[in-house]
């Protein structure tokens, strides 16, 4: 609203899907917005994901079943979970918190809060995609979770029970139904769970670029700026300190993804954020065709997704921090399995990529008002749901700054949940 009498200058730190979505909604509300991009265009984790708007994904990463599986996964050379030995001491407190969040009572609480937040995710994407003329990138593709064996499918019973309680619609497919849905998939899967209501992004890089370009044309300043600290005066943030100098503002939003922890700490918030390093490779098929929908091969934790005319394969979660060199063998070793699933795939990856998921041990993002500076707001830690929940997070943060949304209503995501 251009005539907003409470117009403020809001400085958003971070130019991924979360930061740009915050900027979109803040600008829409009539505020002056500056976005500080510390990574450079198209280097954020938002562009390298599988493109799934995973509105059915209300089950936390930590469950009793996960805890039982972790020891074996760490000892298995082919496991999708890797912890570099040098990082074990640093990640141990995070893993302990995840274990505590994996109790059945906590899983139920976390699932309920995630389900409530996910209800607005698709409409938030549609609002942004229509505004930036990117609606054709948001596809009603559905999302397919496939299982090699009946035993593997049986192990998903707990997930299916949670989804049923949360009224998340899904369809169970047998081998024939899977082949009928997408003949590109080899007949090696015995069962599948199909989420018809899920959408996907045809090209995350293009989506983010179009949103960024739209904002700059609307007068939002998106400028290079790696924030190292904040200027604090009388308990309030007054400027973000960058290598280019201070950037003053009335309100500040920390949406720097995996780089948010230290920035939040400087504003009085001690949040247990860590990084799940995620890899992808881009593959083409011999026919030039792609899959009908994103596919999660559940038994092997491999996602195969139709992205930008190719198939993007994501696999492996690695705990090694932000500075360790990439280990692309973690994703390349999945290639023989991917060729089993999609025989048309070529054997040589077009490209390889490493990104950093900002992840919380309770699978719940940090969304809300800073503890130490009341004019600062936190919006990070979405883990595997960053693309899914970015636009909805932007709507919430803008509403909290304007006072139309009460932070206490989103207590499950508040920074203060770690104060005790």
UniProtKB/TrEMBL annotation:
GO terms for cellular component: cytoplasm. One of its GO terms (molecular function) is oxidoreductase activity. Gene3D superfamilies: D-Amino Acid Oxidase, subunit A, domain 2, FAD/NAD(P)-binding domain. InterPro entries: FAD-dep_OxRdtase, FAD/NAD-bd_sf. Keywords: Oxidoreductase. Residues 9-398 form the FAD dependent oxidoreductase domain. This is D-amino-acid dehydrogenase. It comes from Pseudomonas amygdali pv. eriobotryae.
